[in-house]
Amino acid sequence: MNRYFFYNYFIVCFTNLMLLIPYFLTSDRYGGAVISIALSPIFGYIFLYMFTSSLSKFPGKGLPEIFSLFYPKWIVNIVMVYKAILIGIAGALVISTYAVIITSFLNPNANQYVMLMLLLLICAYAATRSTVSIAFILEISLVLSLPVIAFVMYKTIKNPLMDWDAIHVIANHVDHMPTLLSFACATFVFTGYLNMGLFNRILPPNFKFKYIWLYPIIAFVVLLITFFVPIGIHGTETVAHYIFLWSATADSTRMMYGFIERMLFVFLIVLINLSLTFTMVGWHMVIEYIRTIIPNNVVNPDEKKAPIRNYIIAGSIIIITFVIMLRVKDGQMLKFSSYFLIFRLFSETLTTTWIFILSRKKVRKYEKEAAS
Amino acid sequence: MLERLKVILSPSEDLIQKELKHPINKQTIELAFYLPLVDEAKVHKFITVPFSKNEYPISSLFQSNSNFYIVEDPASWVDLILRGQALIEHQNVIYAFDAMHYKYNDAPVTQVESTIRGPQHSISEDPIIALNLIRNSYMSPELTIDQTQVGTISQTSLYILYDQRKANQDTLKLVMNKIEAIHLDLINSTGELERLLSSKKYQLFPTLLMTERVDRISRALSLGKIVLILKGSQYALILPVTFFDFIHAVEDHYESFWMTRLLIVVRYIALFITVSLPGLYIAVLSYNPEIFRLQLAFSLVASRSVVPYPSFIEVFIMLVMIEMLLESSIRIPRFIGPASTTVGGLILGSAIQQAGLVSSVMIIVTSLMAISNFVLPVYSMTLAVRFLKYPIIIIAIFFGLSGVCVGLYFYIVYLCNMRSFGEYYFRLRGKFTPQEGDIGQAGAR
C-alpha cells in the first residue's frame, strides 16, 4: 500500500512544478536558485523522514487525532483551522492559476471566472467524497497522467532547440547564497508527505513506509528537468519573460508524426487532470480538518454518503476562493503566491518538528509505562 | 446416513432428503439426492413406486437391478451425490442409484453474450434446468442454494446461490435484507430486480452484473460472489461486481493470452471513444481547431464548410438518428430488422451528407461512436455508457475542450465513489499482500 504514499507525494511535486514554481526559480536564476535546488532534496529528505517516522508511531491516526491525544480541544481546533487555511490556499492558488492558463492558452474568448467556477465546482464535488474514494481517484488520475508527463519531458529534452550552453551558464551560478523565496520554492516540491497527515487514517495498522529515500531523489531529478530544460530552450535571458513557463516550453515542442502537432495541448490536458486532483486532495484535507472542530464528528474514512457538513464546508471554500479571485489581479496573485510559499516553509518546518517531538514523547511514555 | 450428509453438505434448498416409511411392512428407506441433478421420473420409477407398491422385497430389487450398486466408503458420498446419483439407505446398506440427467439439450442458445469457442448454452427460464447446469459446472459441496419468493402477487421464486466458504457474510446479509425489503406486486424479470437491489435510484453505472452464461456464473461463484436466479428469466444476477468485470468477456479465458490482453486494451479505448468523441468533435471544431496539425484541421473544417449551422446541432441530429436506428432495430419484427438498419444507416447517412446537412466527418464520428459502444461485452454496461456521452456533449457546448476534460474527470470521481454491495467498484487492484493489509481497514476510531 506504499503506492498511496507515492501518489500523494508526487501529485504535489508534479502539479506545482508545472505551474508557478519554475517562474519564481528562473527569476532568481543568477542568484540563489541553483544552490537552493541543490540543497532542497537534503532538506526535503530530513523532513520526510521525520514526518513518516513520527506517523508510523501513530498507526491509523490523522493529524487531528494525534494532536487531540496530547492537547485539549481548543488548541487542537486552532491548529486544525490554521492547517486547513494553509492547505486551502495552496489548492485555491493552483486551481486559479490553471483557470488563468486555460483562458490564455486554450479558450481566449471564454470568461475566466466562468471557467474558474466550473473548475471550483468539480473540485468541490470531488473533495466531498470519502477519504478512500479520494485515494482511488488520486491513483487513477496519476496513473493516467504520469506516462504523458514523462513523454512531454522526454520530447522537450530531445528538442533540437535545446541549448546546453545556456544550462551550463546558469549552472555555474551555484556559488551564490540561497534566497528565501527560491529556497521555499525548491523545498515546496518535496512536501508531498504532509498529505499523509490525513491519509494516514486509511493506511493499514501494520503499515511501514518503505523506500522513502527514493522519493526525494526522483523529485530532485524532476525538479532539475523542470528548471533547466526551459532555460536550455528559451535561453538564459528570455526564460524570465514567461509567467507560465512550462506551457510556453511545451508549446515550443513539435510532434512530427502525431495528429496533434503541438505539445501544448497534450500538456494542458494532463495539467488539468493534475490540478484538479491536487486541489481535490487539498480541499478534502481542509474538509476533514474543519470537520474535527464540529462537535460529535464521526471519523470514518469510508463513508457511504457524504454528510451535509461536507457540502457546507466545500461550498464556503468555493465562495471564499471565488470572491478572493474576483478581487485579485494577476500581478498581485504572483506576489501573494511568493509570500505564501515563504510563509509555508516556516509553517511546515514548525509542524513537522512538532509532530516529531510528539511522537518521541509518546515513545517515552510507553517506555515509562514498561519500566514501571 | 441423512444426519451425516447434513454435516458434509452445506444446507441447500435443492437437496432432497427423505425418509420413507412403509405403513404395512414397517420397512424404511432413506433417500437423498440433488433435485436439479437427477431425473425425477427415474427415481420414482425405480425407487419410490416399487417401494410403496411393495410387490416384492425392496432389497431384492436393489440387489438385482444393475442400476443400483453398493457404496462401501462414506468418503465417496459427496462425490456421488454431486454427480447426480441418488443415495439410498436400506437396512444399513448404502446404495447409489444412477439417475444422472444433463439438461444441456433443454437449455437455449445464448442470445446476448455469445462466444465463438466457449459454451454455447445459456441458463434457462426454467430454474431447475438452470440449477442443473450450474451444479454440473460448479461441483462443490459448499455451493448453497437458498430460495425465497419475491412479489406479493407473482410469488416468483428467487434462488440465491453462493459458495458457503468463500462468500462474504456481510454482503450476504446485506443482500438478504434488501430482498426482504422488496415490496412489489409483480416481478417479471431480473432487470426489475436489478433496479430494486441497486443502492441508489439514479445510478449511472450498473452495480450488478446480468448474465446468461453458465461459465460466468460458476467463475463468479468460485470468486465468492453471490448469484441470484429468478424463475422465468433467462438472466442471472451476479453481485458484488467491479467495473472491470463489465469490460471483461468470458472469452478472455478461452483464447490466447496476448490477443485477449490486447482486446481488453481495445475495449478501454472503445469506452473512451464512445463517451468522448462527439463532445470532442464539438470542442475541437467550434473552439480549438488548431489542436490538430494544419492539414487535418483544414480538412475537418472544409468538410463542415457546407453545413449551415453550428457543430452541436449537427451532432444532435446525428445522435438522435443513430439512437432511433438502434431502438428501431430492437423493436421491429426480426425479419424486417436488417432492412431497417440498411435503409437507415447506409442510405440516410450518405443522403444526409450529400444534402449538406451534416458533414462527412460527423458521419464517421457517429458510426465510430456507435460501433465502439458495442465493443463492450456486457449489455447493461453498454446501455449505461450509451447515456454517458450526452452530458459530455452539453458541457462541451459551453466550455470546449476543458469542459470535456472536466466531464471525464467527473465520471472518474463518480466511479471511484461507487460501491457495489460494500465492495470498491473502481480501483486498480495492484499488488496485494495480506500481511500488509489493505487501505481503509483501520476504520473509525
UniProtKB/TrEMBL annotation, chain A:
A single GO BP: spore germination
Domain of life: Bacteria
Transmembrane segments: 7-25, 31-53, 74-98, 110-127, 134-154, 180-199, 211-233, 264-287, 308-326, 338-358
Keyword check for Cytoplasm: no
Keyword Membrane assigned: yes
GO cellular component, one term: membrane
Record's keyword terms, sorted: Membrane, Transmembrane, Transmembrane helix
Name this protein carries in UniProt: Spore germination protein
UniProtKB/TrEMBL annotation, chain B:
Keywords linked to the UniProt accession: Membrane, Transmembrane, Transmembrane helix
Keyword Lyase in annotation: no
Bilayer-spanning residue ranges: 265-287, 307-326, 335-352, 358-379, 391-412
GO biological process assignments: spore germination
Superkingdom to which the source organism belongs: Bacteria
Pfam short name (any one): GerA
Keyword ATP-binding: no
InterPro entries: Spore_Ger (IPR004995), UPF0353/GerABKA_families (IPR050768)
GO cellular component, one term: membrane
Similarity-based family: Belongs to the GerABKA family.
Listed PANTHER family: LEUCINE ZIPPER PROTEIN 4, SPORE GERMINATION PROTEIN
Name by which UniProt lists this protein: Spore germination protein
Species of origin: Candidatus Pristimantibacillus lignocellulolyticus
